[in-house]
Amino acid sequence: MYNLIDECLEIFFVLIQGYCLQFFYGNFLRSRSKKKYWAGICTTVSYAAWKLGGDFLWKSNYSAAGMLTKLFLTLCVLFILALCFYRSIKRITVFLVLTFITVSEISLFLSNMLMRLGSHLFLVWEWAYQNGYMTSLKAYVTWVCVTAYGLQALTYTVFLIILYMTLKGIAKNFRDKEYAFHRTELFFILAPVFTGLLICILLRITIDIAQDRIPRFLYDRYPSLSLIIPAILILSLLSILFGVKLLQDMIDLSREKSNRIILEKQIGSMQENMEEMERIYSGVQSMKHDMKNTLSVIMQLAGVDEEGRTSGYSQNEELQTYLSELNRSMNRLEFRFKTGNQVADTLLNMKYHEITRAVPDLKMNADELVLPDTLAVQSYDLGIILGNALDNAGEACRKLKEKEPEVEVFINLTSFGKGKLLFFKIENSFDGIIRRMGTSEFPVTDKEDKNAHGIGLINIRNTVEKYQGAVDWKVADKVFTLSVMIKNEERKEE
Question: Are residues 471 and 354 in the same domain?
Answer without folding.
Answer: yes
